[in-house]
Specification:
With 333 residues, the protein is mainly β. Helix content is 13%, strand content 38%. The chain has a seven-stranded antiparallel sheet with strand order 7-6-10-11-12-9-8.
Length: 333
């Protein structure tokens, strides 16, 4: 079995030549991995952008099984890029970076989703739709305004749809033509018989909320990425359960981890200027977020999407269940 000094010596002799082979992006000394498990055998590790079938490589680009008696190993890391600050302009923009409606400060680009087959950016209503005060078609900036995002240079998307947040305001009058016609007949009848009674009809509107969510349509497909910073691509959809391990990538606190500490949470969330909204069937986690992380996609340990982060305190994080978000907006991965 090779010793570290021997592996280092082989690296010094052969690193330059290995990096000259197609697809190799890094070399180093590490433990060999077999069957997905790390062994105690030291090896000369070649990192590749993407593993490809051996037969598709020219003989000179193949990494030999050993070099001067030292075993080799090949791992896939993807293309190694310089990491930009999450509050900087990024194209393509991945999940986890600053974004926002032109009239807010900034939140987090959660992830990419699909609406009727079209790619959309998912985040919160209060990030993309300015807490109900925006209009469909409004400009979305990356980075968000507080991080220097300006029109037109940093325009990345247009607001496409949002789920209105109910702040407990009285329900508006109904626009149902049938219902209004029936009310008109009833009131006409009251008038004929001399009664002063008059009827009116209003929408039945839930005073509680399930989601703080919105989507925006990227103006150019190449301006967004389906990866989330420091997490990678989403593996599928999951369901948040008590005790589940969580991870998120956000504008302010970056990659953080936690676990579901409560389910079936009903909570009153302050949106400032005296506005409070009640949310039901939420997930609660510990301290894994701060201001500006709103809109972050929340994944389980297997990279399955389970929630959309939207609120929190110094020691708690509140998360919409992703099944409610997808249902309300008609989304798919």
């Amino acid at each position: 079995m090779a010793h570290m000094d021997e592996v280092r010596a082989r690296l010094q002799d052969h690193s330059k030549g290995l990096l000259g082979r197609a697809n190799v992006v890094a070399t180093g000394a590490g433990y060999k991995v077999k069957g997905g498990k790390r062994t105690k055998e030291l090896s000369l590790v070649c990192s590749v952008a993407q593993k490809v079938p051996l037969e598709s490589l020219a003989a000179g680009d193949r990494v030999p099984q050993e070099i001067d008696g030292v075993p080799t190993d090949v791992i896939q890391t993807g293309v190694i890029r310089a990491l930009a600050t999450r509050t900087e302009r990024q194209r393509p923009a991945p999940g986890g970076v600053s974004i926002g409606h032109r009239d807010i400060t900034a939140g987090t680009l959660g992830c990419l989703v699909k609406k009727n087959g079209q790619v959309m950016i998912l985040s919160n209503n209060h990030v993309l739709a300015n807490s109900n005060d925006a209009q469909v078609g409004d400009p979305i900036l990356q980075p968000g305004p507080i991080d220097g995002g300006k029109l037109p240079a940093d325009l990345i998307a247009e607001l496409h749809q949002f789920v209105p947040i109910n702040f407990g305001d009285p329900p508006p009058p109904s626009d149902c033509k049938f219902a209004n016609g029936m009310i008109a007949l009833l009131n006409a009848g009251c008038s004929v018989i001399g009664s002063r009674t008059r009827y009116s009809i209003h929408r039945i509107q839930a005073m509680e909320n399930l989601v703080d969510a919105a989507i925006a349509r990227p103006l150019k497909a190449g301006d967004v990425s389906d990866e989330i910073l420091e997490i990678g691509r989403i593996a599928g959809l999951g369901r948040g359960e008590l005790g589940m391990a969580l991870q998120k990538s956000g504008r302010t606190t970056g990659l953080t981890r936690g676990e579901v500490t409560q389910v079936a949470v009903t909570i009153d969330v302050s949106y400032g200027t005296g506005r409070v909204a009640r949310f039901t069937d939420q997930l609660m986690a510990g301290a894994m977020s701060q201001g500006g992380d709103s809109g972050s996609a929340v994944l389980d340990g297997d990279k399955r999407l389970v929630g959309l982060l939207f609120a929190g305190s110094d020691n708690s994080t509140i998360i919409n269940r992703i099944e409610h978000v997808f249902s309300a907006l008609g989304l798919a991965l």
